[in-house]
Amino acid sequence: MMRGCSSRPKLAQNQDRAVCMTNCPTLIVTVGLPARGKTYISKKLTRYLNWIGVPTREFNVGQYRREFVKIYKSFEFFRPDNEEGLKIRRQCASAALNDVRQYLTEEGGQVAVFDATNTTRERRETIIQFAEQNGFKVFFVESVCEDPDVIQENIVQVKLGSPDYTNCNTEEAVEDFMKRIKCYENSYETLDEVLDRDLSYIKIMDVGQRYLVNRVLDHIQSRIVYYLMNIHITPRSIYLCRHGESELNVKGRIGGDSGLTPRGKEFAKKLSNFIQSQDISDLKVWTSQMKRTIQTAEALSVPYEQWKVLNEIDAGDCEEMMYEEIQDNYPLEFALRDQDKYRYRYPKGESYEDLVQRLEPVIMELERQENVLVICHQAVMRCLLAYFLDKTAEELPYLKCPLHTVLKLTPVAYGCKVESICLNVEAVNTHREKPENVNIHRTTEDALQTVPAHL
Amino acid sequence: MALTFNTSSEQKRLTQTPLLKIWVPWIGCNLNRRRGSSVPQFCNSPTMIVMVGLPARGKTYISKKLTRYLNWIGVPTKMFNVGQYRREAVKIYKNFEFFKPDNEEAMRIRKACAAAALKDVAAYFSKEKGQVAVFDATNTTRERRAIIISLAKEKGYKVFFVESICDDPEIIAENIKQVKFGSPDYVDRDIDEANEDFIKRIDCYRASYMPIDDEKDRKLSYIKIFDVGSRYLVNRVQDHIQSRIVYYLMNIHVTPRSIYLSRHGESELNLLGKIGGDSGLSPRGQKYANALATFIRSQRISDLKVWTSHMKRTIQTAETLGVQYEQWKALNEIDAGVCEELTYEEIQENFPEEFALRDQDKYRYRYPKGESYEDLVHRLEPVIMELERQENVLVICHQAVMRCLLAYFLDKPAGTEIFFSTRIIMTLQQTKQPLLSVDELPYLRCPLHTVLKLTPIAYGCKVESFFLNIEAVNTHRERPVNVDINRNTDEALQTVPDHV
């Protein structure tokens, strides 16, 4: 029986766990002057698509250029009359497209994000032809922005740290970069409502104030548009933590709907103090609909929102069992889980893969919101964290999310700064590492090798 | 299970509400802000969605669809069609001259109608706890829009404009054919007369039409839909609900197509009168699968997509079709938690109070460690969104799931005809409420071995039902007369259908 995954159905026959969201691969092509957020968007989009189960990779032409032209001298490389420079840049774009072809046709990729300025119609035409020859759909993402403050902030956040400017001081770097932008400005041909009316694209204006969307062809493009329209760059922090230690936690039992232990309640109090000390403006607090997260939130004495989709992974027949009992009653299941913890589904329960699917609306809303504290559960927190930290499906189920520890995530440059704050209240360890022996014929001892201590 | 009312000294201890199974600080506390739902409680201020566009641009079509969608996902929404108000004020429509810009008398009436509609919007928000009002009118002048904006500002409503722009004469002609000829305005005219009059009506608006201006109106929140969705311009989306509305509007289309809904063939557990579980088809169920394959082939549908759940019985049914199908976990049957695989008799025996609570409010009732219909709707939302995007689809699912999907597609405006090709499987009352209420949803009849074919027409949906002539048990349990928790066993089991 084939299982569906991510938010999309799976073809029943002949697909070896491939998620089929489109019939042919999609090439997303960024368009825009330097410092308009193209790489930011590319990386974020790639991260999101991979998380929901669509194999995606980004191809940054600037990278190719840096590998080719080992040392960056100055903006003169980008002058439109620099023949040598133009030749190299064209070659880099070709090399990148070649890698795109390989990724989408031979390596099982479904979406490739081609991250470059692509500011001339000529360059875009080349890409369109390339896509047609290979049977790829093309979707353009153009970022248009004239706000000098935004551009300045971009430059400060990501350009100054670029390998191109490691040996320059800030003023030099900014000056050079502004001249670099100038090199592109004269030949910039924005996507035109009339001339480009047959293309599929989204034009993002002024960091999301306004969008122009043209000819969305299929499901994946529709999801991409929805995602792009929900992200923002307003500085904010997301706090993730688990409920306080629960009665079932101390007994080494999984799942269930128990209340907090005295130590769990103490954590809730300390969490309240911590949150107050952070002095966060307008903090939203979200919990699941399980008693232990709600009890934790109650201690904060602020309004909170309950989401059923934040409930812990459903362990089906194994609910409220200890690992020892699972090994006793379902040794085969227990081994299968260790073999592929991400895709393994508990009998009459869920898998991590199912969890990701049901958490997608949470992620979408987290993108829309600003400061949020999410009080959830171990498996749920691993899924959310994997999204923000770009972890693979293999790593996700083993991310460490201990009790009584708050993770503060702050978007910075192209990624996320993570601060881990342990609130100094003792709790059981609930993290079970992958044991060495995952064979279905292993001994009980081998199976229980990594089970954490409990009452 | 005893209900405990916490005294003030115990207020710190959480209790789970018996019906919804939500943990609350104490029974009876006001939890509207705390209870999760498919649309989190972000709509603090009510929202007015204001349509803009010349006649025959799909404004009412969009308004009705949007209203239906928002209500289905749990956002109380109501539509206010100014044309209706005009028809009530001016009992008989003579001709397009009513709409001439120099017709002062008519202008006064039209302004009064708009004002009356706006007044009702205000009442809907303040007295009826509505959250979204869809103001369906042409709103083609800046002046008219300014009035609405200033009213909204005064009252603290958010405003989101939806403008439909289309100059394709074929599309407009098709619109006029589909919805205008049936309008009360043209009930005594022949088609050519009506068409001519309507074209002149559109011309009356054209001269004064000022589309939303991307420069002057840059501070407004709006979406412009060009040529039935080939292009969109979206400006200043303010919040979650506007973002959802934009996403929805960008996924709907008007290409003709049909959606087929069916349950799996009769299952082993169906025969035993047991709910839930993951059993296979009975012999009759397998016969149905064969009949379904024959039926589908006879329909000669181009490019049909077939969807099933992850449960054995829907997959077995799809396998017989011999075509590719896709499995959605979201289409799995409602999770009955601790009541899984029990008969109603067993539920009454083991959980009599739960059984009664379910009869009291079947839509919101959540099985212990299970789901409610309300939860089901939430998890089916991506299915609905994808159904909107797709064209011809056959969905093989389950009783509760099918009820939820059907409820999304149905509405009951007065005068809409619902066609049945064989027996009538549902009796809808013509009430003042145009939409199916959540109280009716869990009692929609979705018998085994019957395919429903839904075809969008005009503003609604034509429903044809095909019973494929393979006998099956009845799994429909009506609401019993006595829903009190102290009722006796006989009263509780009064409406349980027969089984082995």
What does it look like?
Chain A: In the C-terminal section; belongs to the phosphoglycerate mutase family. Chain A: It comes from Xyrichtys novacula. Chain A: This is -phosphofructo-2-kinase/fructose-2,6-bisphosphatase 4-like isoform X4. Chain A: GO terms for molecular function: 6-phosphofructo-2-kinase activity; ATP binding; fructose-2,6-bisphosphate 2-phosphatase activity. The complex is a heterodimer of chains A (about 450) and B (about 500). Chain A is an alpha/beta fold. In chain A, about 40% of the residues lie in helices and about 15% in strands. Chain A has 15 helices and 13 strands. In chain A, a hairpin with a 4-residue loop joins strand 6 (about 200-205) and strand 7. Chain A is globular. The two termini of chain A are about 40 Å apart. With about 500 residues, chain B is of the alpha/beta class. Chain B has helices spanning about 60-70, 80-90, 105-125, 140-155, 170-180, 190-205, 240-250, 270, 285-300, 310-320, 345-350, 350-360, 375-390, 400-410, 490, and strands at about 15, 25, 45-50, 75-80, 130-135, 160-165, 220-225, 230-235, 260-265, 305-310, 325, 395, 450-455, 460-465. A 6-stranded mixed beta sheet of chain B has the order 4-5-3-6-7-8, sandwiched between helices. A 6-stranded mixed beta sheet of chain B has the order 11-10-12-9-13-14, sandwiched between helices. In chain B, a hairpin with a 2-residue loop joins strand 13 and strand 14 (about 460-465). In chain B, helix 2 (about 80-90) packs across helix 3, helix 9 packs across helix 10 (about 310-320) and helix 11 packs across helix 12 (about 350-360). The longest helix of chain B is centred in the first third of the chain and has 23 residues, at about 105-125. Chain B starts with 14 loop residues before the first strand and ends in an 8-residue tail after the last helix. Chains A and B meet through strand 1, strand 7, helix 7, helix 10 and strand 10 of A and strand 8, helix 7, helix 10, strand 11 and helix 13 of B.
